[in-house]
Every structure is written in structure tokens, then in C-alpha cells.
Amino acid sequence: MWRRRFLAARLPGLRNDAPRAGGPLLIPDTKIRALVDDTLYRQPPSATHWSSRTMAAVHGVSPSTVRRIGSARRLAPHRLEPYKHSRDQHFEEKRRDVVGLYLNPPEPTLVLSVDEKTPIQALDRTESILPLREGVPERLTHDDRRTDATNLFAALDVAEGTLLGEGHKRPRAREFLSFLRTLDRSTPPELDLHLILDNLATHWTAKVKRWVLRHPRIHFHVVPTSSSWRNQVERGFNDLTQRRIRRGTFPSEHELIEARKQYVATCHEDPRSFR
């Protein structure tokens, strides 16, 4: 076929394939439309959502046919994603303030994303970890021994990607104020500090507010309620958990703290800001 098109029209004849009739349509459009409508607007009598087998039984088709139709229309009734609606009356104002700091911070200034990771539990395994082998993943016992916990106060330098952390036994306003003093001492005094915070009550006590008034170079910026993910340090906490803590074994709180310090030191060797 393509040889005849080439002889008749040379190269242009090969650019666009000729229309083909294809195989006969086995499932009528009305059945496909009914299947899609059931998926979107109806529930099965004894379940919260359709499966390919239950839908196939109702419409007299095969489960693979149901999956093909769902894939073509990007329907996934088995999936469920949570969402959170913020009722903050000043949502847009706070959002613009925080995003503006990320994209276009004032000069000279240092933008820090600040929060607490509480608590970080030191977990020891009841048996030895079985090592990774070919065809066999690393294996942990299903149970563990809980020793002690620590709380991490951290500030992420938004521009550089470095993390300044300080551990405390309790996550109270007193400890948060101690961390603020650490930030004040360990940052260049000629720079204004713009701290991005969430709505945790310990950040907004009267004692903390009085201290901030006495330090005019420090400015608080709050993310809207129900949107703590806008605080970039949360992404840093997630990396810490995934890369160092979740699969770690810590017989004592001291070993947990040392692992956390080692992780932060390693990140500082090649810091990267989040985009």
C-alpha cells in the first residue's frame, strides 16, 4: 500500500496515512455513555464506588472493556484524594504576602520558613534489620520499641536551601522564643528577617509578640489557615523523614539527634532551594 502511494505521490504521499475503516464497533455508543454515566452519577447498591467487575456485570461487558473505557475518559472511581477548604477571611491577602516573599523578597532581607516538627520518635527495632539482597528488599520487624522523642524547631533559608535546626524536649512558646533568639544571634545583624509561620498558638503568644516588638528587624508573615503546605520548611521536614528517619533505627534519643544533625550537615554541603 505505501509503495503505491510513494509511486503515485512520492514523499508527500507518505506523510499522511490514508484513512482506514478499522474493525467493526463491538460496543455501541449508547452502552458506553450509560457506563460512563453510571460511573459518574450513580453508586452500586452495596458499595461506595464501582469496580471494573461490578460495572461489567451490570452492563454485560468484560472487566477489561470497562477498564479501557475508563482509561480513555480518565475515570478512576477507585481513587480518592482529600482536600481542605480554607475558611480564612484574609486568605488572598496572606497568600499574596507569602508568595510575594518567595518570588520577590525585599532587599536587604533574609526570608526564613519556620516551623516545628513534633514529635520525632526514636524507634528501635525488636529484631535485627534483614539486609537488602538481590530480589529481596530490606526488611524490618512489624513492631518496634519506642524510647524517647524530640522536637525540632527549624528555619529554612528560602533562597539558599540551608536549614537551621534546634532540638527541644517540649514544643512550647518558651522553646519557640529560645529558637527565635538563636535566629537573631546566628544571622547577619544588618539583614531584616522575614519569618513565614503557620497559625500554631505558640507562635502568637503575648510573650512572643512583646519580644518581636523589641526586635524591629524581625517580621512575621502567616500562611492562611488550612494551608500549612505553603510553608516551605514542611517540604524540608518531609525530606528529613523520608531519607533519614522513617527507615532508621535509633536505640536512644541521642542517636536520633545525631542522625538529624548529620542529615542537616550533609544537606549543607550541596544546598538547593525549593521551586
Report the helical percentage. Answer: 25-40%
Question: What radius of gyration results from the CA coordinates?
Answer: 29 Å
Quaternary state, please?
single chain
| CATH architecture classification name of the largest domain | 2-Layer Sandwich
- Quickly name the level 1 CATH class of the largest domain: Alpha Beta
Tell me the strand percentage band.
15-25%
Mind describing the biggest β-sheet?
5 strands, mixed
Q: Largest beta sheet: what is the strand line-up?
A: 3-2-1-4-5
Plain-language structure description:
This protein has 275 residues and is an alpha/beta fold. It has two domains: 55 residues; 179 residues, Nucleotidyltransferase, domain 5, CATH 3.30.420.10. 39% of the residues lie in helices and 17% in strands. The protein contains ten helices and five strands; from the N terminus they run ααααααβββαβαβαα. It has a five-stranded mixed sheet. A hairpin with a 5-residue loop joins β2 and β3. α4 packs across α5. The protein is elongated and about 80 Å long. The mean pLDDT is 90.
